[in-house]
Structure formats: structure tokens, C-alpha cells
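Co-fold these.
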Amino acid sequence: MMNRTAFIKFRGTNSFLLHSLSSFQFSTHKASLHSNVSSLIHKITNLNDALKLFDEMSHRQPLPSVVKFNQLLTAVTKIKHFSSSLDLFKQMCSLGVPVSNYTMSIAIKCCCQLHRTKDGFALLGCCFRRAIAPDVYIFNALLDGLVLEDRILEAEMLFKKLIKQKLCEPDVVTYSTMIKGLCKFGNNVTTLALLRLMEQTNCKPDIFTYNTIIDSLFKDKMIDDAFKLFKEMVSDKGILPNVITYNSLICGLCKFGRWDEASKMLKQMEDENISPDVHTFNVLVDAFCKEGKVEEAEVVINIMIERGKVPNLVTYNSLIDGYCLQGEMIKAREIFDSMTLRGLAPNVVTYSSLLNGYCKNRNIEGAMQMFRQMTGQGLKPNVVTYNTMLQGLFQVGRCVAARRLFNEMHAQGRIPDRCTYRIVLDGLCNNHLVEDALSLFYLVGNSKLNSDIAVYNILIDGAGKNGKVDVARILFQGLIDKGLQPDVRTYNVMISGFCREGQLGEAKLLFLKMEESGCPPDDVTYRVLLQGYLKKRHYDDVEMLLQEMDDRGYSLDASTLSLFIDHIAAGLLDRSMLKLLSKLVPKELLDDPRLCDWE
DNA sequence: ATAGGGTTAG
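Predicted complex below.
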């Protein structure tokens, strides 16, 4: 075959020669294509190459076999161009390629991955019409589609139907997909039952099955069960954990602050010659960032790079979020710029972190500018983005703008979630719009949104702070009537409301009720009650409360302490209390110059 | 000579 240099040498010598040369090249190219479609398909890395190859294949006479087309479709599906893959499938049909069950399974998978499981089922109908017997691959793809669309009941129905009507022999993938669906809905009891059922059949659970369940148990905070299953997998079934198993374990342990065990797992992993991948490093980066240890996170990233792993969008997003949580917006922007320079396009998560950072710093203009930049890049804000912006706007008292944004959220088809609801209620209460918050609350009525103790805490606090302790009392009774369990915060905001109105008797009664209700007071409870007592110059229980605080190992905060000092300075409280107070003051507060003559 | 399932971020 003529090579490229030879071709160049001929240029300009003779146009006829050039023409024949190029056609010669073309035909040899085609010839090599014909014999080597499979090897060309394996080299496909982008959609364009795939489409070109398809075009050339479809012009061949005779047409390449269906196997070649299936290979190409697989390649396109692997690079996640599902709708292009479907287009090619349609073209295959109109070209008259005799599509097989392989082709159908790929096409159905594409529909399902596009959240168009309905079309997937339509293609199942086509199978019957074309006398293609649907196999387990096809049913697995459909089952996965239903799970993906959260249609868990239909997934269960399909699963049972497959078995009952013997539509196909379910295999380990069928079971694992069903298990994934059950896990997604937090139904760990049924999940484990299905795992046991599986063990009775001849398709045994494999590493995929176990990884799915172990990860789900961690997500549901069932750490001990997760480890039990992990041991069962390794010891009883002899299945070796892989990098994904370890990633789940390490991620779960980090989330619960169980650092020692997490690093033990890292060591164990290395001992077994399983090297950490980008995902593992990302878990560690994120864990450090969440702990406020951004420098450590940067160290992890350096190790990651030393080991030849390339940080990706997730890595940078975690780091940016870490800096934003610390309010270090300059660093956050630096990382943002450097990731853009590396050709990584920021996504909605990146922007939401930045918005959050600006809002935390009460820089609402900065947040707005980011919001506009984000939408300008064609990124659609999601519920989290809107929640962040709403919180920021309420925080700086821009209730009208918040309202406008809430309406926009609605217009964009974003359904407010429990966080949105809490943010709006809290925002209204903190901006002296308790009446509005209450009307919204009553409008929502007896729904799941209102069966949330946090919602009651917000409203009780809002009512109390706005001089509506009677409303607070009604709300408190209401939540008890509903069968909700008040938590420490509920008691704290209620006690704080009573204290503010000088109803110290009520405050004390509720305080005493906490212990017997199995919800012991925390340091905040004591601070609130003490401040209430001091402000009303009601000193009877003060010493006893301080003593209790000491017994429980609680400490005083700066503002309560300051109040005590004022009362002592005014001669309202005896100086003998200083000794007890000094025991309750954290070291950093002892530096206060006003306290130098304490001991 | 071709098809499928598991882990991460706001």
C-alpha cells in the first residue's frame, strides 16, 4: 500500500495521477476495512470514528455480518452514546440487517439507560414480532431500567414473572440487579432474604452481588452487618474482595469518623496487592475535606499523582467544597481555575459548592455572579443549587429575591424537597415573617414534609423568638399528638421560648421532663436555662445547675460566662461562685483579660 | 465471533 510520504511526493506532478492515487488509496483503505472491521471497532474511542465506520460498513456490498454491526453498537454503547447507538440500531433495521437477540439486548439497554424503559419494552414487543426469543440479557436490561427509574414495584413484578412464567432462567446478574433495586429503596431485610434465596439456587452470589449489598448496608449505617457480610464473603464463600469492595468499606468507615479502621483497611488492601485507584483516593480526599483538613487532602492528591493516578472532576469538586466549607474562597477559586486549565469542565456540583461558600461568607453578590456564570454555561441548577441560593438570600434578609428564586425553581420543574422546605421556613422565621412560615406550614398540612421534627424545631424557635410562646406551645403539643419524638433541640427551643417570656416555672418543668423522656439535656439546654435565670435575677437553682454541668462534663460558652461576670460585678451573685465557674470554662476563654483575678 | 450487573463529589 502507498504510504503517506510517497503520496506527498506525487503531488503536483500530474493531476490524473493524483486522482488515481487517491482512489487507489481509498480502495485499499476499504479493503483493509473489510477484512479488519473487528480490529477497527476495538480502536474506537470517540463517536465520530464510530459513525464514520458505520457509514462505510453500510455502503459495503454485501453488507457485513450482523456480528460486526453488533460489535460497533457495543463500542458506541461503551462510550455511553446511548441515543447515537439507538440511531444506528434504527439504521441497521432499515438497511435490512438481520438483527439478532444480541442487537436487541444492546438497543434495549440503550433505551433503559436513557430512562426510556417504556421504549425498551416496546422493543421487547418487536422481538416477539421478529420471532427473536428474548433471552436473559434482554430481561436483565429491562429490569435494570425499571430500577434506574425507581420503578421498584414493577421491577419486582417483572422479576417474579420471569421466574413464575419461566420466561428465562434468571442468572446472577438478574438477582444482583434485583438486589440493587431493593438496596436503593433501603429494603435491606428483603435484600438479605433474596441473597439467601439465591444461595439455594444454582446461581451463586458473586463479588458484584456482595459489593452491592455491602455498600448499601454502609449507606444505611449498618456497619456491623456490612462487616459481617464482608467476612462471610471472604471466609465462607472464598470470594476475594476487590478494589470496589475496599472503596465501599473505606468510604463507609470515613463517613463515620472511624479513621483507624479505615487506615487499617488501606493497609490490608495494600497487603493483598490491590492498589488504590482514583476512586479510593477521592474517598480519602473527600473525607479529609469534610473534616476541615484541606491540607491533608492536598497531600493525598499529591500521593495520588505520584502513583500515576490523574485527579478527576470528583477530586477537584471535593477539594473545592473543602475550601468553600472553610470559607476560603480565594483558594477555592484557585482550584477552580486550575481545573479549568487542565481541561476539566466544572459541573453543577462544582458551582453549588462555590455558591455555598460565597453564601457562607454572606457574599451574596459573589454567589449570584457564580449562579449566572453557571447558567450561562448551559448548566441547569438542580434542587441542591436552588436550596443553597435560597439559604444565602434569606441569610442576608433578601426575602423578595428568595421568593422570586423559589418561583423560578418551580417554573424550571425542580420539585422542592425537605431541605427546601426547611430553608424556606427557617428563612421566613428569621426575617420576622413567622406568620408566613406558619401559613405555609398549615397549608402543607398533614403530610410527610410536616412529619419532620426539624420542621417543628424551626417553627417553635421562630415563634418563641417572635414573642409567640403560645403558638410554640401549641406546636409542641401538636407534634406529641402526631406521635413525633421531640429531640434535644425541640426542648431547647421550647425552654428558650419560656425563658424569654419569663415563664421560668414552665421552663424548669420541661427541663425536668427531659431526663424522664429519655432525652437528657445537653450543654445548650443548661446555657439557655442559666441565661434565662440570670436575666430574671432568679438565682435559686443556678449553683445546682452549674454543679450538674460539671458532673456531666459540659462547659460554658462565652456569652453565658459574660452574663455571669456582669452579675458578679454588679454584686448580684456571690464571688464564691467563681471557683465553680472557672471549672466550667474552656481553656481558650480563660485568656479573657477580665478573668485574670479568678483563682 | 458479538450483549449484561457493583464504588465517589454539592
